[in-house]
Predict the 3D structure of the following.
Amino acid sequence: MTNKKTLFSGIQPSGLLTIGNYMGAFRQWVNLQNQYNCIFSVVDLHAITAIQDPQQLKSNILDSVALLIACGLEPEQNIIFVQSTVYEHCVLAWILNCQTFMGELNRMTQFKDKSAKNKDNINLGLLAYPCLQAADILLYNTSFIPVGADQKQHIELCRDIANRFNKNYEEVFTMPQPIIPTVGAKIMSLQNPLAKMSKSDNNTNSYIGLLDNTDLIMKKFKRAVTDSEANIKFDEEHKPGISNLIKLLHLATDTPIEEIEDNFYGKGYGVLKEKTAESIIELLKPIQDKYHQIREDQTYLSKIIDTGKDKAQAIAHDTITRVYKTIGLSLTG
Ligand code: AMP
Ligand code: TRP
């Protein structure tokens, strides 16, 4: 490790990842990887707050690791690891549970949303999810956490927990701060532009999966919900559907938003949909090609996961040893 500051982020291995994940998270990760000591985790222990099929989960974890690399993260330069391989996450999560108030957890928007959607499985893990997330972050002396806007609340809670621990005991934890992109932090659903694009949406037309093929991407964009005007203008409040398309075109091509508005002045929505679809197809093509190549190479993936585990565990173990000592526990007699 160099004296660069540490950046940490995580993604759940939920099977399908979308261009929302890419624009809100991965894109930043790739752009920031040279600037910081970066640690990226496939957070499978978070995924089991919902019941997962074991075979499917195993395959989703490998898919996610392969996809991170395909998106441009360098496994040599960064630590890429699977959360469950480093037991220290569970140990610190427990310790942080004891520093977190029920009221804080009950207030979390993600907990409320997920509980409302799965009324028959509101488990303790779902409630304590942000404590495990805080453990992920605090184990690695993290300074920066690049995430989409929906994670802001969890990061704020992580800071509160770290602060409380530092006050109750000693200054052990580094205070992390989020990096949230100015554009792209919230990509909206193609079917309901007032809601976040989400891979768990029942309507598959609402999201673009990173592995969707050309025809499917074109079809989904053509069906995107817009408005009844005929005016291509970026106005998220009054024209959320059109603004979402403009934003995606901007992010995929680096064309400034005003230039897109000028280029499409007087044109129909169909043209914008088609151009946006084409730009996303072009963006995803090399990622998809690389993904398929990596995903088939089981030996390569296993090596990445094992190396990531060793590198992550060395840091995590050191933190746990310090935390234990601070609170009066010890790993030895
Ligand atoms: P998740 O898919 O919920 O595990 O999220 C993984 C990362 O992608 C987090 O940093 C999220 O904030 C980000 N993310 C998820 N959905 C979107 C979206 N629709 N727009 C922007 N970022 C997103
Ligand atoms: N909760 C995050 C999400 O749903 C995933 C996550 C888990 C994470 N641990 C993290 C993100 C630590 C950043 C840092 O997107």
In short: DSSP finds 13 helices and five strands in the chain. The chain has two domains: 6-179+298-327, 204-292. The domain at 6-179+298-327 is CATH 3.40.50.620 (Rossmann fold).
